[in-house]
Amino acid sequence: MSDSHRWQEAQQYESMFWKHAAERIDSGHAEGLHWYRWRAEELVKRLNRLQLQRLTSGQAKVIEIGSGPVGLCTFFPGTERMAIDPLMDTFSQHAEFTSIRSPDVNYLQAMGEQLPCPTAHYDLAIIENCIDHTQDIDGVMSELDRVLKPNGVLYLTVNSRSRIGYYIHRILSRTKIDRGHPHTFTPNRTIDLVRRSGFQPTEVEVGSYLEASIADLKSGKLRDMAKALLGVSEYLVSIIAEHQPAGGASPSIHHTSQWDSKRAADTVE
Fold this sequence. Notes:
Elements: H1 4-27, H2 35-49, E1 61-65, E2 80-85, H3 88-91, H4 95-98, E3 105-109, E4 122-128, H5 137-147, E5 148-160, H6 163-174, H7 187-196, E6 199-206, H8 209-218, H9 222-230, E7 235-243, E8 252-255, H10 261-265
Parallel strand pairs: 1-2, 1-4, 2-3, 4-5, 6-8
Antiparallel strand pairs: 5-7, 6-7
Helix pairs in contact: 8-9
């Protein structure tokens, strides 16, 4: 758990990032945020492959935590959809974001640690590349455990580091060189978090640290090149998990090519 002041600083950084993104989109110097649609479509394909069509038929109740200004749930089929973000009111001030939202989604400002939602209500919870931005990781996971139905499914992704990169990034985070990420993850730490929070991973996809590091070196951007040289290049870990008591069989783990949210965010930097 990060202290309140550290989290508030991270939120200020996040707010300025998205304000800058909106300005760049408005000026035509960056692409819009339609990659949210692509990511939602990819999630539908993955759930279908896992024989979870009950979540993709348009009849599921879906909640997304830390959705950002638009969120996957904007483009995900569902009978009831809610997008939660502590900066939602700020996002809603920018037409660059609201213009691609869906009128069928409830966009609400709230913290993941205190969801304004009934217990055992949702079929699918999405928390994409957000858990490392929260104040209280376990508090957020406890709320996801509360609001999901007993047979619900969790889709969680987070940018992770190598074992050595984890410790280096902890220094960068605590010294606020990386102001936007109060927390750091590795693949194993991510899986352990999901398991101890009342979910059983059924499939885990892990990106490539090597590919991420090479991409950072070749990016031509000073910040990304520095990350590669410091050993803190991030790669995506994504988990599909069933809502049930922790334990059970080991998940199926797939190593994938790098397709993380950082690359999508590059379109607005």
